[in-house]
């Protein structure tokens, strides 16, 4: 039957388009961005952040619809058993960042710059920041710990250099674990002298002026943190800084009880994963020792009786032949 060329072409085009569209991969999950978090901040809606240290914990955070994930160097202590955050090597840290980035979900990802990655020179720091950003396209920002601006002008300058190169930065002030020795230990900051409060306020302002899109503030009296938050035009994410901040972050191992240890005052524990895991493993050990696991009907695989019989017959024949020889 004759088919007009125009009609044939139309049919071909329709079929081709159908094949083309059907071959397209599913749209990727929409992730939060720095801009979407800033819009939430402008609306006065608290921003939620949780740390994650591997694929599993990252997927949990995504599934909980948390705004952002921080791959913090706290994983050195909570996941790897080191005594300090300064013990972890850059290669170890990057391994965990890659693992976190393999999970799928809406949470925006930011990563710490561990101790030793930027202190030796600004150029070294820039190179290492680029290395972190290139680990995955999902990484939206780095986080940099800075000391009081009166003692640590270097880090403020380094952050300014990163921002001027288009590398988004979250500045971290207050208690900065990488500088715990110079701060006299893990202590609340800005709670002793008026001078200390003023320096903390000035440091936060200088981080904003350097180009930070957000500030993480740790272990600061809630009135001080609220005051600083009100004076800045970027989000302040608090950890041990009270409810007056623009959002909150907690370490996932502390938050859900992954370890059996004492917790900082500012942590609320929302689960007891260590106890649940210990109970489950103890029950497993008990059932294996009592031969109640695995259950033959529930946990094993079957084989057809005729196949099994043939195997045994063949085995017996071969055994008899070998014995005769």
From TrEMBL:
Its EC number is 2.1.2.11. The keyword Transferase applies. It comes from the Eukaryota. It catalyses: (6R)-5,10-methylene-5,6,7,8-tetrahydrofolate + 3-methyl-2-oxobutanoate + H2O = 2-dehydropantoate + (6S)-5,6,7,8-tetrahydrofolate. One of its GO terms (cellular component) is mitochondrion. The keyword Acetylation does not apply. GO terms for molecular function: 3-methyl-2-oxobutanoate hydroxymethyltransferase activity; magnesium ion binding. It is an enzyme of class 2 (transferase). GO terms for biological process: pantothenate biosynthetic process. Keywords: Pantothenate biosynthesis, Transferase. It holds the Pfam family Pantoate_transf. Pathway: Cofactor biosynthesis; (R)-pantothenate biosynthesis; (R)-pantoate from 3-methyl-2-oxobutanoate: step 1/2. NCBIfam families: panB (TIGR00222), PRK00311.1 (NF001452). Belongs to the PanB family. Catalyzes the reversible reaction in which hydroxymethyl group from 5,10-methylenetetrahydrofolate is transferred onto alpha-ketoisovalerate to form ketopantoate. This is 3-methyl-2-oxobutanoate hydroxymethyltransferase. It comes from Zygosaccharomyces rouxii (strain ATCC 2623 / CBS 732 / NBRC 1130 / NCYC 568 / NRRL Y-229).
